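anyone seen this seq b4? input:
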Amino acid sequence: MRGQEYDGASNIRGAWNGLQALFLKECPYAYYVHYFAHQLQLALVAASKDVQDIWLFFSKLNSIVNLVSASPKRHSATRWSSHFGSVSSLIDLFGPSRTIIENLSKNGLTNSIRGEAKGVYLAMLSFEFVFILHLLREMMGITDILCQALQRKTQDIVNAMNLVSSTNALLQNLRENGWHTFFQNVESFCKEHDIVVPDMSASYTVGTGRSCQQNDSITFNHHYQVDIFNAAIDFQLMELNQRFSESTMELLILGTTLDPKDTYKSFKVDGICDLTGKFYPKDFQDEMRALRS
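predicted toks r here
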């Protein structure tokens, strides 16, 4: 049996210059399979950060988590240990967290603490921060089940591949059909916490705020739906597709036909023939005709 299994670094998995590519030149049937137990959620977060606004958001989120966690008035029944936990906790306890940050901006022990708190407090009051906060919870809520399942010590490969497919489908559905419901939820949250919602039909401005300085005049709706919402989901889908390509998923599923568990309960003649015919044809040239019988 031949195969490759590494972490997700680009110099390892790169299709053209990575280590897997070098192996494939020498051994074309040493198929690359991404390491299942890798922290997929971290990789998906990194993919989201390819959207500049989300990268900026995480710098603020880290400060909020550090400030709230260090505060003696923090709420102990929260999950700040992961990105998904931090995002979910901040939404659930947005009001109390905002109060803690505001108090630190006025009464922090040092100038640096007060300055950092003031900066993140102003960020928390912005529509863009709240928008991205909810978008990340929406996306991570979809991917979290898959991420947890892939880290189990005993893993059913077919179940794992089904989870990959359903995760992709849910993300795609969110992108294509979820915008209006999502935006309504964000709007409702903003009204509850007195955060100003921009006129989505107005021209989106950056820099000095003068729209005439922009080469491309776009609306707020375009900025949030296309440049952030769609773009972030697209990067998530791209990351998942790179790690779990259709050919890799088919290879793994067909491979389960050789699973000796329960006296080869999963054994299927068609699966064995598909496995050899599609993935290892040169290894079974002479035996291919007789294999089925």
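The chain has three domains: 1-34, 40-243, 246-293. The chain has a mean pLDDT of 85. kinda curious what u guys think
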